[in-house]
TrEMBL record:
Stretches of the chain forming a coiled coil according to its record: 107-148
Species, as recorded: Tachysurus vachellii
Domain of life the protein comes from: Eukaryota
Assigned keywords, A-Z: Coiled coil
Pfam family, one: Zwint
Listed name of the protein: Uncharacterized protein
Gene Ontology cellular-component terms listed: kinetochore
């Protein structure tokens, strides 16, 4: 009976237990094959030892429940291990291998996709570098073009200024020559005929000078300062100071300065070909108000006044404590009138009912003369 139980326990082990565990012979196929065979033999030995440990564990458990040697000899043989569990295990193992193969295939597909994405990324990076180079090249070309345009414009302005200065010097030299000739003729001629001829020549010279309505004050490559001289009007108007600034290659900005001229300070922008028309418009606007502005300019030397052309208000400071405000209608002095708006003395408004010049429709000059000599305030 004991022999049968020992045989039953040995049958639970794998058939490989009955074989001798010899080490793998060294082959001459190379170091890689030798190492592979060695590792496989070690794995086989470890598997055999695990199975032996399992059999020994079962034997120890069996002996632990025995109380005597007679019970070991009289007990029936233990049943063979159930082989039904190995079938599902093998099925699960096969299924696991299939899934491992499937995962390996998915990993290979993913690696290919990642390699393709890496290639696309490298192409995109190369394209981005190419675009950056093209952008830098375009910016460089645009900057060079702009610099050439600015240089060309400066050269043109310098050339135009030089030509204008040369023409002005020629005119001045010719004018000096004409004056010298006129003086010589005046000194040498004593007859009435030559005197009449001299008068006609001087009149012609005055007409020529009257037609020159522009006077250049200063100039640089991008800005001109000049005066408009309204000599064709009957009023004695002061020169109008303005500046012309080149904003871009073919555009300008015309700035009108009020000064004592009395016009509204404004700026006009446009192309270079519109510059002459803009200057003509400013001159016509100045001349159209010539009578009023000439009167205001003349009053500046007599009274302490401040003219606001935008609101058409004139402030007269009679004394340190007395301030008068007058308003000029549109079209003054031809169709409009000058009106007294307020008089403040020590900050208080005065009654205007008693403040009226003796003349009908008083002019601005009449008002200022009346207010400056009025004894009521």
């Amino acid at each position: 009976m004991a022999t049968e139980r020992g045989v039953a326990l040995l049958e639970r082990t794998d058939s490989v237990l009955q074989k001798t565990c010899n080490s793998t012979e060294v082959q001459d196929a190379g170091e890689g094959k030798v190492m592979t065979a060695y590792l496989m033999d070690c794995r086989r030995k470890q598997k055999i030892m695990c199975q032996q440990y399992g059999v020994m564990d079962d034997m120890l458990k069996l002996l632990a429940f025995l109380e005597s040697a007679e019970q070991f000899l009289n007990e029936p043989c233990p049943p063979k291990p159930d082989t039904e569990a190995s079938t599902p295990w093998k099925a699960l193992k096969a299924e696991c291998l299939e899934q491992v193969q499937e995962v390996d295939g998915l990993i290979g597909t993913l690696v290919e996709a990642m390699e393709e994405l890496l290639k696309k990324r490298q192409r995109l990076e190369a394209l981005l570098v190419s675009l950056e180079k093209k952008k830098e090249e375009q910016e460089r070309v645009a900057l060079q073009s702009k610099q050439r345009a600015e240089k060309q414009m400066h050269l043109q302005l310098d050339d135009s200024l030089q030509k204008a200065q040369d023409a002005l010097r020629v005119c001045d030299r010719r004018l000096c020559e004409l004056k010298i000739q006129v003086n010589k003729q005046i000194a040498n001629v004593a007859s009435n005929t030559m005197t009449a001829f001299r008068d006609r020549l001087q009149a012609t010279l005055k007409v020529t000078q009257a037609n020159m309505q522009y006077r250049l004050l200063s100039a640089n490559p991008s800005e001109l300062h000049l005066e408009l001289l309204p000599r064709t009007t009957q009023q004695s108007l002061q020169p109008l100071h303005l500046s012309v600034t080149m904003t871009t290659e073919d555009h300008f900005r015309l700035q009108v300065f009020q000064g004592t001229a009395g016009l509204i300070e404004e700026s006009v922008e446009g192309t270079v070909r519109e510059l002459s028309a803009a200057l003509l418009d400013v001159m016509e606007c100045y001349i159209s108000q010539g009578k009023m502005l000439a009167e205001i300019q003349a009053l500046h030397s007599r009274f302490a006044i401040d003219w606001c052309p935008a609101m058409r208000l004139l402030t007269f400071l009679k004394s340190a404590t007395t301030v008068c405000q007058l308003e000029l209608d549109e079209g003054y002095p031809l169709s409009g009138h000058a009106k007294l708006l307020s008089v403040r003395k020590d900050g208080n408004l005065l009654d205007l009912s008693a403040l009226q010049p003796r003349v009908m429709n008083p002019t601005l000059t009449d008002w200022l003369e009346f207010l400056s000599s009025c004894p009521h305030f």
